[in-house]
């Protein structure tokens, strides 16, 4: 197997006073979808922000295509080919959908390539094409989520980071978004690192998964095998009743560490 | 025995102290065997530095000339200028230093009306004359105070002369556009006093702030009132704005007249003749070179050679001021005291300055040398003398 | 009627200047959430720089115009890159104090360099007038209105169609997302400062033939601030409309109410609007994401 496109080795970083990651190592191989699961506050978003340069890690290295990038500024990280789709559908609310997409290609200057990619994005996202003249702030949540994914694709990334794409969307939209992710991965051979709370959907879509608890990786495996594990089934796939969730989690955590 | 010794020495010390203080009273402050010390709280920096610097230069020029000619009764003049930066507290600080440390004989050329008003009580406490300040407010010489002297027409005299001229030209509808400050109101008061003599009054008044950059409405309002003459209670900048606004709006059947701050190269030098036709009244008129007395021409050359620019009105005022001090010191004799100096100033009659201004006369109840004003008018980027000297009290 | 038209002409000209200064306030505020109280002082500096080019270097009006705008844009860029960028994220209070302090420094610096005597600003059209239906319109007033319209059109096209302009909008609307797009946000913000400085210089040069050049010009910034608030701080159309409204209200109230009401009319209107509509005339109720 070839060298993974992205490798984190023993990353430690903190974001605000609470959320911290403590010695995380993980890798994203070429052309695969890797998912990071975990509860709120487990440090999933911090991992992505560390990769894209919003946070500089206190320790450890972020290796992208063989180069250490952990001290680069976020705009520079974006320009070397890592597209980050942040949590919460961060559109440019007063720009039109089309302008939002074009902002994705800000760092590029190959007109022809940009035009081709816009075609490609519209092909993936016919809904966005229909709304291309609408200002992004007036679009629905699902449309905005599509838009920010399309915008990330416009930078022709080598790696796509997705932070909670399902957040606040209806089950039907979540399904649609993940089908899109799988399709893009399959057709473009684009490696994707997706952070999710919606473990069932994410595990079905991804190839490989990491489970984060309080800033540490407590489990990693291929998604098929993760789905088999009892802990994962109980805590993330809803096999245990909701109201006893917290108690069991406390008890079980020990076995993971 | 010991006690008596103590008593004797104490008495001796007391006597000594008394006699020495007696001696210093006999000797006039600021006057030594070799020097007479003159102080000035001028402006060497800050917004009025232009005036202050020119004044300081011109004073030093006259002082050097007098000293080169052997001084006065064997004494040289020494000028000490402190920077007041056009700030009242700085002016007070400067005055305190000049009074207490330098022990000046007289104060000359303090810049600005509020600064002069703040400094004068300090001078008065120490019986120091306040001479020829760079302020054209009436309070600089009136009501008569034995220590206050000014030699040229103040704002009210200037506007008085100007109004008199306009009344002579059969103008009847006078208006005023003025800064809403003591300065502006003083000028309006002067105009009203003079109009009263002719049985007239100001038919419309309008105000602005010193910082205003647009006088469009003011001009429209005055135009509605049908003014024939607009008296400007302004400095140079707002005079230009008022005048150009009115003329550009096509208001041509009206004359504008300002006082000495409008008698300024910055006003006459507005490009494309923008201020052509504007009247300015001034107490000190800079004659064309060929009409100026020889002494004035020499002074202009020396000043230009030393400082690289033409002397301004402030420079001329302060140059004349030092000259008047020298004359009074000469008159007061070798044993000059402040009282004999003031008496000598009051005795100056028919003094003609180096620049050909109207003769000055002082007396015990008149401490203003001349109240004559010159009415000038901008033509082709320069001031042309229209009338004057006019004394509105004639 | 003629009189009212005349007042409207005056109001429009001064109002355009307020609009341009207010535009500078708004551009910087939208991008960085800073209120730049030195905006009026940038206008003053622009006029001083231009008048120096004309009087000292003997350049033509148009060349001096362009160079002064470039100089002020570069100056403002540097101001952000060297000074203001460092206070981003500090409390609003310190930012406000900083820009007020900068204003003082600029005024004092201008006095040191150029003195206190006002300079006449020679413009090719400074003394021309046209009469339209009895209303006298000075060519300076026309130049102000035309200049404002042209500048606003250029800026509109720039923000609407150029890649950099759209990126500026994007960075103003969502700084984080702009970073993720590879937009060099810090440099973009400095460029926005540069535009504001350039706009201030244009305003200064346009009005200079009317007001003469001295450091009281910076006082225009205060009224323009009222205009920006009136329009709803953060709205560009609001700034433009607010400026023209304040210009008009001043003139009309000065003519039809008691003497002196011209000075307070702008602020009285502002208070009234803020009481009835606290977000300003064009203010958006939504909040931007940072």
TrEMBL record, chain A:
In this chain the ABC transporter domain maps to 6-239
Give the keywords, sorted: Amino-acid transport, ATP-binding, Nucleotide-binding, Transport
A Gene Ontology molecular function term of the record: ATP binding
A GO BP term here is: L-amino acid transport
Keyword hit for Signal: no
Q: Which InterPro entries match?
A: AAA+_ATPase, ABC_transporter-like_ATP-bd, ABC_transporter-like_CS, BCAA_Transport_ATP-bd_LivF, P-loop_NTPase
Read off the Gene3D superfamilies from this record: P-loop containing nucleotide triphosphate hydrolases (3.40.50.300)
In which family does this protein belong, per the annotation? Belongs to the ABC transporter superfamily.
Recorded protein name is ABC transporter ATP-binding protein
Organism source for this protein? Answer: Mesorhizobium zhangyense
UniProtKB/TrEMBL annotation, chain B:
Q: Which residues form the signal peptide?
A: 1-26
Asked if the Swiss-Prot or TrEMBL record annotates the protein with the keyword Signal, the reply is yes
Matching entries from Gene3D superfamilies are given as: 3.40.50.2300
Q: Which parts of the sequence belong to the Leucine-binding protein domain?
A: 36-381
**Matching InterPro entries:** Leu-bd (IPR028081), Peripla_BP_I (IPR028082)
The reply on keyword Aminoacyl-tRNA synthetase is no
List the keywords (alphabetical).
Answer: Signal
What family is this? Belongs to the leucine-binding protein family.
Matching PANTHER family, A to Z? BLR6548 PROTEIN
Q: What is this protein called?
A: ABC transporter substrate-binding protein
Q: Which organism is it from?
A: Mesorhizobium zhangyense
For this protein's source organism, the top of the classification is:
Bacteria, Pseudomonadati, Pseudomonadota, Alphaproteobacteria, Hyphomicrobiales
TrEMBL record, chain C:
Under the heading Pfam families, the entry gives: BPD_transp_2
Originating organism: Mesorhizobium zhangyense
Q: How does it sit in the membrane?
A: Multi-pass membrane protein
Q: Which PANTHER family match?
A: ABC TRANSPORTER PERMEASE PROTEIN, BRANCHED-CHAIN AMINO ACID TRANSPORT SYSTEM PERMEASE PROTEIN LIVH
Segments traversing the membrane: 6-28, 95-116, 136-159, 188-213, 225-249
Cellular compartments per GO CC: plasma membrane
One annotated GO molecular function is: transmembrane transporter activity
Gene Ontology BP, a term: amino acid transport
Task: Describe the family membership recorded for this protein in Swiss-Prot or TrEMBL.
Answer: Belongs to the binding-protein-dependent transport system permease family. LivHM subfamily.
Record's protein name:
Branched-chain amino acid ABC transporter permease
Taxonomic superkingdom: Bacteria
Sorted alphabetically, the keyword list is: Amino-acid transport, Cell membrane, Membrane, Transmembrane, Transmembrane helix, Transport
Main site of residence? Answer: membrane
Against InterPro entries, the record matches this protein to: ABC_transp_permease, BCAA_transport_permease
**Subcellular location(s) of the protein:** Cell membrane
